[in-house]
Design brief:
The protein folds into two domains: 6-167, Rossmann fold, CATH 3.40.50; 172-291, N-(1-d-carboxylethyl)-l-norvaline Dehydrogenase, domain 2. The radius of gyration is 20 Å and the shape is globular. The strands form two sheets. It has a six-stranded parallel sheet with strand order 3-2-1-4-5-6, sandwiched between helices. Strands 7-8-9 form a three-stranded mixed sheet. It starts with 5 loop residues before the first strand and ends in a 19-residue tail after the last helix. It is α/β, with parallel strands linked by helices and 310 residues long. The relative contact order is 0.10. α7 crosses α12 (259-276) and α11 packs antiparallel against α12. It has helices at residues 16-25, 41-46, 70-78, 102-114, 128-132, 144-155, 169-197, 202-210, 217-221, 223-228, 237-253, 259-276, 284-291, and strands spanning 6-10, 29-33, 49-50, 62-65, 93-96, 118-121, 124-125, 137-140, 160-163.
Amino acid sequence: MSDTSTIGWIGLGNMGAPLATRLVKSGYDVTVWNRTASKAQPVADAGASVGGTIRELASRDVVFSMVSTSGDLEQVMLDPDTGLLTGEQVPGVVVDCSTVSVETSQKVREAAEARGTRFFAAPVSGNGKVVAAGKLSVVCSGDQDTFTLVEPMIKSLGRSVTYVGEGESARLVKIYHNLLLGIYTQALAEILVLGEKSGVSREATMDFINNSVMGSLFSNYKTPALVNLDFHPTFTPVLLRKDFDLGLTEARKREVPMPITNLTRDIIESTIGHGYAKDDFATMLLIAAANAGVELASENADVSDGLDPE
């Protein structure tokens, strides 16, 4: 498809709004819909049109969706009264960028194909600031011909697009990626608390890690949260717990022991139980500190997240 293709976008949360905005700024004709209409205003200010219902998007060439849970995806796609795929008209292609279960993705795929709509999975890795910096990663799966059609659109969302095959392969890769996200965050939390009790500042420890082979884009952009205790939510423990449950379900189906993953899932649960459900999942640091008898304070350090906008 060319940049003259029309696009619909469902879901304008922390990720959906900046992603839809990137499509607008890439020159596409975009119409958006969100359950809370006020959240559409920033995307409208960038040049998007705003639809009053989901089904208004059915006339678009391609409709993207970015929602929080498997249940949300089923609702926006399959609700008999309001769903995108249950009206008189349906779009030619649906690209879903959410992190949902394989079972839900397959259910929506079958419903789409029954109506003659191509369904393509394209879950993403990053947060709103990562999107703004042009450093988002996308993993894709589905029909190869469909990928060829939508690849230019998906490439406008970030810096990396990986096609991993047919069917629901991308769902699995994204879920497994998020398992690593939680495990790595817990490892950082533990060594930072160990350093704290050894008299080493978190700023110094993170500076060394970020400049070593153990550093990463992720460790860099979590540095302000871990050093200055800035837990403004980019991804909550509740959403991370959801992904751990999805991943561990796959592990049980395939009889793959994952002891570290199971333990990390319990720690994420503890984070929620301690009242941090609406904060960033980096609050895992506070649980590690409490377990060690350490009371943390912000270091008020001038540290960068490495995410300068494009």
